[in-house]
Amino acid sequence: MKLKVCGMKQENNILDVADLQPNYMGFIFYEKSPRNFNDEIPELPDGIQKIGVFVNATLNFVVSKIEQHQLQGVQLHGDESPEFCEQLKAYDVLVIKVFSMKNQFDFKVVEPYQEFCDYFLFDTKGKEPGGNGYTFNWNLLKKYNLKTPYFLSGGLGMENMDDLLLFLKRPESRLCCTLDINSKFESVPGFKDITKVKAFKNMLIKNGYQNHDL
């Protein structure tokens, strides 16, 4: 199980989170987001992959951010097509396509993306494309029968850790490869509470889902 901390914004906070060695750190390139990133990403330790988060951006814009920040992956939160995902594969980055859900979802919409995405990300459908702070009905994932591994996102926090641990023991979690945390760990949008992030990761370690103590 890997860990992604998304919505990073301020340099000192980025470096403090990096000290906790998450597998991925997410940087949002979307002007309407309170977590919009418009600075330079500081040098991160080896082993942490930089993921750019985009919402219906043009190919040129995404590529410019890949090149500017040496991103290792892109996360697509909008209505991007399978063909758009295919185009991004030419830039040697991980392609993560986001699908938002709440109480129902038709996984047929996911099928055309399988060939062109390394991962899917299942998030909660809300007013904003991410960072809404509440979970969706994880039972929906019982109907996920594709082979592409996925990130689980949407309202993950210490307060629902017990439910999360129960979910991770269930068959429908077998392709859940990464937990994506964001708003539940913030004091203000874009600024992560290091104590909370550390506690979350150590709880995963305690239960056998991460492999080194902090």
TrEMBL record:
<keyword id="KW-0028">Amino-acid biosynthesis</keyword>
<feature type="domain" description="N-(5'phosphoribosyl) anthranilate isomerase (PRAI)">
    <location>
        <begin position="4"/>
        <end position="200"/>
    </location>
</feature>
<keyword id="KW-0413">Isomerase</keyword>
<keyword id="KW-0057">Aromatic amino acid biosynthesis</keyword>
<dbReference type="InterPro" id="IPR011060">
    <property type="entry name" value="RibuloseP-bd_barrel"/>
</dbReference>
<comment type="pathway">
    <text>Amino-acid biosynthesis; L-tryptophan biosynthesis; L-tryptophan from chorismate: step 3/5.</text>
</comment>
<keyword id="KW-0822">Tryptophan biosynthesis</keyword>
<protein>
    <recommendedName>
        <fullName>N-(5'-phosphoribosyl)anthranilate isomerase</fullName>
        <ecNumber>5.3.1.24</ecNumber>
    </recommendedName>
</protein>
<dbReference type="Pfam" id="PF00697">
    <property type="entry name" value="PRAI"/>
</dbReference>
<dbReference type="GO" id="GO:0000162">
    <property type="term" value="P:L-tryptophan biosynthetic process"/>
</dbReference>
<dbReference type="InterPro" id="IPR013785">
    <property type="entry name" value="Aldolase_TIM"/>
</dbReference>
<dbReference type="GO" id="GO:0004640">
    <property type="term" value="F:phosphoribosylanthranilate isomerase activity"/>
</dbReference>
<dbReference type="InterPro" id="IPR001240">
    <property type="entry name" value="PRAI_dom"/>
</dbReference>
<comment type="similarity">
    <text>Belongs to the TrpF family.</text>
</comment>
<dbReference type="InterPro" id="IPR044643">
    <property type="entry name" value="TrpF_fam"/>
</dbReference>
